[in-house]
């Protein structure tokens, strides 16, 4: 016999298609443990308000304990007649505590304040798992930076050779953005840590219940200031969806580079067999599918964010049933990330970098031209003319298919009188890299400091 939570004023039950449209247990059942935790806290405040005797509280908590066990073991599951997780668990409670006692728990709460609270609880736990998964990826990047502390590669802008940089510097750049994603989730948690429980349907409770006590028991910092806002707002979900979409975009940018680096034309890396796939027709293929799925799934996470924002944008206060659409996009984003994290960390951690190839390409494309200009500045030449002169060096070298370091003394002197042979001191990749030694630069000593600070921050998590 289905137990609707609102039978009284209805002469008939819902039409089948109405029930099918309404049902949400296929995705909100994961809130069940949080729902039961909320019920425990709610039973205690009902008791403190004199609405449950001590014996009734004990019996209620015992029934909720059995229900929690049966949910965990799978002995109790929702049926198609249960509208949502809250309805199903009310049925489970009535079965265990009896209709008389079980029917008392619903006083002073609504599914509106319940779901707003439970969704926050689920997301706060999910945020911790997402942080842990992100830190595994950061660990893999740091491990690779440590494995190749001296390797250089051509740093790029516009995908064109720009200036030589340390491979470790490049890898740590990705680690820095991932750590900001972690920081965003932690900042988010401060705002998500307010409990709407006790807001009722929208207006608050008349029964002398203590929302602060419920908030504390459920691990929140405080209860919401405003019951209307507590039940109607979902910016906590949208902000979370943004934080994880941004994270997925940052992972996608790493993935894109791995895909490029893995081409024959670049030849920077080899993928470990465990983290690559083959082709059903082309026997030679070894494809970077982990990276491609990472790039692909970022589109899905962006869609989850924009879909959620569109769901929210025209809803008047307070609760509207549209809000039932708030959960699946965010659940999906978390699910996709949990699939990705171990694969990305595995793929990145097992990449082999071809350091000879990287070193050969590092000075190619005249990446040391800026070093000539800056060397001239140190000789007192204004940067404007120094830039001109260095550009002319490139033109002359390019004209006879030579490197900048192969320009003759005469050629140099003809381009600019200040260009003496000692300019060649900076015309090596090592010289160029170690000259960029201000904080944040690519000089080995600076990169080592950056790495140590980053690892110290990791240890705080
Ligand atoms: N299942 C709903 C949700 O996820 C909560 C139920 C509120 N329903 C209602 N008729 N007020 O938002």
Write a structural description.
It comes from Prauserella flavalba. Its EC number is 4.3.2.1. It is an enzyme of class 4 (lyase). Pathway: Amino-acid biosynthesis; L-arginine biosynthesis; L-arginine from L-ornithine and carbamoyl phosphate: step 3/3. The chain is mainly alpha-helical and 461 residues long. The chain folds into three domains: 92 residues, Fumarase C, Chain B, domain 1, CATH 1.10.275.10; 233 residues, Fumarase C, Chain A, domain 2 (Up-down Bundle), CATH 1.20.200.10; 59 residues, Fumarase/aspartase (C-terminal domain) (Ribonucleotide Reductase Protein R1, domain 1), CATH 1.10.40. 61% of the residues lie in helices and 5% in strands. It contains 18 helices and six strands. Strands 1-2 form a two-stranded antiparallel ribbon. It is elongated, with a radius of gyration of 31 Å. The site of arginine (ARG) has 10 residues, from helix 6.
Please outline the helices and strands.
Blueprint: H1 16-22, H2 25-28, H3 32-48, H4 54-73, H5 85-102, H6 111-147, E1 152-157, E2 160-166, H7 167-192, E3 194-195, H8 211-217, E4 222-223, H9 227-232, H10 235-261, E5 269-270, H11 289-312, H12 327-349, E6 352-353, H13 355-361, H14 369-378, H15 383-399, H16 409-415, H17 429-435, H18 444-460
Parallel strand pairs: 3-4
Antiparallel strand pairs: 1-2, 5-6
This protein binds arginine.
Arginine is lined by residues 24, 28, 84, 111-112, 115, 319, 321, 323-324.
Query: How would you sum up the global shape?
Result: elongated
- Total strands: the figure is 6
Question: What average pLDDT do the residues reach?
Answer: 96
Spatial strand arrangement across the major sheet: 1-2
Q: For this structure, what is the CATH class of the largest domain?
A: Mainly Alpha
Helix/strand order = HHHHHHEEHEHEHHEHHEHHHHHH
Helix content: 55-70%
The radius of gyration computed from the alpha-carbon positions, rounded to a whole number of angstroms, is 31 Å
State the end-to-end distance.
49 Å
Distinct compounds present: arginine
| CATH topology description of the largest domain | Fumarase C, Chain A, domain 2
CATH architecture of the largest domain: Up-down Bundle
Total count of helical runs of at least 4 residues: 18
Q: Give the count of structural domains.
A: 3
Family: Belongs to the lyase 1 family. Argininosuccinate lyase subfamily.
Subcellular location: Cytoplasm
Organism: Prauserella flavalba
EC number: 4.3.2.1
């Amino acid at each position: 016999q289905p137990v609707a939570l609102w039978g009284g004023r209805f002469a008939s039950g819902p039409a089948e298609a109405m029930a099918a449209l309404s049902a949400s247990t296929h995705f909100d059942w994961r809130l069940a443990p949080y729902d039961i935790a909320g019920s425990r806290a709610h039973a205690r405040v009902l008791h403190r308000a004199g609405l449950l005797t001590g014996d009734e509280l004990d019996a209620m908590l015992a029934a909720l304990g059995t229900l929690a066990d049966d949910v965990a073991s799978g002995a109790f599951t929702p049926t198609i007649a249960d509208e949502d997780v809250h309805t199903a668990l009310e049925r489970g409670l009535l079965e265990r505590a009896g209709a008389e006692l079980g029917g008392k728990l619903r006083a002073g709460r609504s599914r509106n304040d319940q779901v707003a609270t439970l969704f926050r609880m689920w997301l706060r736990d999910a945020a911790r798992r997402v942080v842990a998964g992100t830190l595994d990826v950061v660990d893999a990047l740091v491990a690779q930076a440590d494995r190749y502390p001296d390797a250089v590669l051509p740093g790029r802008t516009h995908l064109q050779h720009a200036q030589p940089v340390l491979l470790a510097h490049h890898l740590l750049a990705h680690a820095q953005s991932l750590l900001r994603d972690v920081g965003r989730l932690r900042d988010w948690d401060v705002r998500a840590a307010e409990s709407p429980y006790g807001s009722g349907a929208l207006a608050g409770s008349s029964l002398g219940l203590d929302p602060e006590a419920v908030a504390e028991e459920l691990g929140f910092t405080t209860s919401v200031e405003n019951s209307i806002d507590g039940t109607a707002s979902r910016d906590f979900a949208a902000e979370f969806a943004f934080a994880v979409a941004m994270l997925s975009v940052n992972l996608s940018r790493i993935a894109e580079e791995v895909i490029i680096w893995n081409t024959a034309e670049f030849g920077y890396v080899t993928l470990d067999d465990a983290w690559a796939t083959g082709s059903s027709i082309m026997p030679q293929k070894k494809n970077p599918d982990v990276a491609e799925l990472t790039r692909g799934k970022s589109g899905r996470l962006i869609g989850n964010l924009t879909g959620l924002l569109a769901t929210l944008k025209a809803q008047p206060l307070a609760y509207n049933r549209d809000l039932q659409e708030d959960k699946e996009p965010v659940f999906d984003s978390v699910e996709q990330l949990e699939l990705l994290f171990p694969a990305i960390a595995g793929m990145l951690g097992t990449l082999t970098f071809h350091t000879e190839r990287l070193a050969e390409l590092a000075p190619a494309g005249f990446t040391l031209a800026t070093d000539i200009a800056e060397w001239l500045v140190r000789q007192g030449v204004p940067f404007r003319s120094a830039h001109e002169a260095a550009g002319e060096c490139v033109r002359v070298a390019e004209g006879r298919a030579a490197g900048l370091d192969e320009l003759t003394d005469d050629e140099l002197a003809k381009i600019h009188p200040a260009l003496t042979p000692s300019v060649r001191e900076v015309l090596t990749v090592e010289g160029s890299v170690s000259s960029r030694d201000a904080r944040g630069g690519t000089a080995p000593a600076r990169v080592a400091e950056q790495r140590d600070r980053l690892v110290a921050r990791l240890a705080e998590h």
